[in-house]
Design goal:
Length: 93
């Protein structure tokens, strides 16, 4: 039974360590939408847990846009969902 608790403890520790490391690494970056590549599929908006992105419609059509730049943790989850190479991390100004 102790081995189970130790195993769970190690997993929790690794998860916290990985999470903090990723946040630290990306602290100076932020997401950017390449509008010309975006097809407006909405997958990135649904994936973002921080509600940074939203869909907008203008003269160029429907596409994702960065609404709350300050909330972006640069986790990259939305990039993993985009099949059209329409998202990238750039240096935060
Ligand atoms: S990088 Fe992460 S926090 Fe930033 S928009 Fe993408 S999913 Fe959201
Ligand atoms: S996943 Fe890519 S193509 Fe789809 S809305 Fe987001 S940025 Fe656009």
């Amino acid at each position: 039974m102790n081995a189970v608790y130790i195993g769970i403890g190690i997993l929790v520790f690794l998860w916290v360590f990985f999470h903090l490391h990723r946040r630290q690494r990306n602290r100076n970056k932020v997401i950017c939408v390449i509008e010309s590549n975006c097809v407006g599929c909405n997958h990135c908006v649904k994936r973002c847990r921080c509600h940074v992105l939203e869909m907008v419609e203008d003269e160029t059509g429907k596409h994702a846009a960065v609404k709350y730049l300050d909330k972006c943790t640069a986790c990259g989850d939305c990039i993993g969902k985009c099949k059209f190479n329409a998202l990238k991390l750039i240096k935060r100004l």
